[in-house]
Design a protein that fits this description.
By secondary structure, the chain is of the alpha+beta class. The protein folds into three domains: 205 residues, Lambda Exonuclease, Chain A; 64 residues, no CATH class; 46 residues, no CATH class. It contains 16 helices and five strands. A five-stranded mixed sheet has the order 1-2-3-4-5. Strand 3, helix 6 and strand 4 form a beta-alpha-beta unit. Helix 3 packs antiparallel against helix 4 and helix 14 packs across helix 15. Bound molecules: iron/sulfur cluster. Iron/sulfur cluster binds next to helix 2, helix 8 and helix 9.
Length: 390
């Protein structure tokens, strides 16, 4: 993956399309990196190499050489390789199915895409592009395991698709487009969205183009929300976000008690509050740690627990004093399932222990209506259980 990013990047488009001044505001802040990002970068390198090999675009020797390099990285795991093989298989399946109808169908990996006809200086890298007569599919490999990303209406995917259509659409006379997101660490979630050319071009011309121009010029209205601000580089110090969150405290209720309906509305409107408070805390803490005072705050030593300096010597001392091993050690206990999968590989654990692993029903949890999970309906579930027993 190239290390340069467009001001109007596809991956940040959900932000600058909503909050157009954010793109220029973010320019003043340094890029940060994280362990997740390092792991994701390596997974993409491996996914590319594996897919290149599975689609006969590099030789086995070349693949082995790349794999040997990747395996030296501390983020490499056997599970990562399994996930990348699943990605390569997905591409191969789709490509083979297309080749039956169109022998000239091609697969492009890490394809450089320009969507500057809609967003000034817009470019990016699509993980995979499959082209056949009349058809195009853009596939994105997402290695995160936190949040499910939906392809439906996804602006990142649509920008790649616009750019790819601009370059290859006429050559392949593309009429049908599919956008797919593959998230192997979320139980191999595959999410797809189909879009017509006219819908795509209409979105590009009438939605992206004017907003991208505003974003490029640093103009437009700030649009703070938990989604847009989440990964914004300006989020700790953004005045618009601060003002938006403060609005919640301006409205004094005119009755003594609030209703559950009001509590629901407040929760919805306060979606960004806890993240915002955490960002404020991080800002003040890092400022103090750098040596700059902040009125009303100081850094103190956090709580710490006592611990044995040398567990072996502790055990020896207790045994010498006459204590039995059975009372000084904890009973033996299995390592966790997550740890087992990490140590022995997910596939191996599934093969060996699949039938011995159960997943109890989760505790009822509050979620916004937009959450993808099906609604928990206790009454229906009790009736279903009763029917099963009858
Ligand atoms: S923090 Fe939020 S409101 Fe402020 S610029 Fe970033 S996305 Fe926009």
């Amino acid at each position: 993956m190239p290390d340069v990013h467009a001001l109007l990047s596809a991956s940040g488009s959900h932000r600058w399309l909503e909050c157009t001044p954010s793109a220029r505001l973010e320019e003043g802040f340094p890029s940060t990196t994280s362990d997740y990002a390092a792991e994701g970068t390596l997974a993409h390198l491996l996914a590319e190499a594996t897919a290149l090999y599975w689609t006969d675009q590099i030789t086995e020797t070349e693949y082995e050489e790349r794999l040997a390099e990747i395996k030296k990285d501390k983020w490499y795991t056997e599970d990562m390789l399994e996930d990348c093989i699943s990605y390569a298989k997905l591409i191969l399946e789709k490509w083979n199915a297309l080749k039956e109808k169109c022998p000239d169908a091609i697969v492009m990996l890490e394809a450089q895409i320009k969507y500057d006809a809609w967003a000034p200086e817009g470019f990016g890298t699509a993980d995979c592009l499959i082209l056949a007569d009349g058809f195009m599919e853009v596939i994105d490999f997402k290695y995160g395991k936190g949040k499910r990303v939906d392809a439906l209406g996804n602006p990142q995917m649509r920008l790649y698709t616009l750019g790819a259509y601009n370059t290859y659409g006429l050559v392949y006379q593309v009429e049908q487009i599919t956008m797919t997101i593959f998230q192997p660490r979320l139980s191999g979630v595959i999410s797809s969205d189909d879009i017509t050319i006219s819908e795509l071009l209409d979105w590009g011309e009438n939605y992206v183009k004017p907003r991208a121009q505003l974003a490029f010029e640093g103009k437009g209205d700030f649009c703070p929300s938990s989604e847009t601000c989440k990964f914004c580089k300006a989020k700790q110090v953004c005045r618009a976000r601060t003002n938006e969150n403060l609005k919640l405290f301006d409205e004094a209720p005119d009755v003594l008690l609030i209703t559950p309906e009001e509590a629901g509305q407040l929760l919805e409107r306060a979606a960004d509050i806890s993240a915002w408070l955490a960002d404020l805390e991080n800002l003040v803490q890092s400022t103090l740690l750098e040596g700059t005072p902040v009125t009303g705050w100081k850094i103190v030593e956090g709580r710490s627990n006592r611990k044995f300096a040398d567990p072996v010597k502790v055990a020896d001392a207790l045994k010498t004093a006459g204590y039995d091993e059975a009372v000084i050690y904890k009973p033996r206990e299995l390592i966790t399932l997550t740890q087992m999968e990490k140590d022995f590989g997910k596939k191996n654990v599934a093969t060996l222990l699949g039938e011995l692993i159960v997943k109890p029903a989760g505790k009822p949890t509050l979620a916004p209506e937009s959450d993808k999970r099906p609604e928990y309906k206790p009454a229906e579930q009790i009736i279903a259980a009763f029917d099963e027993e009858a």
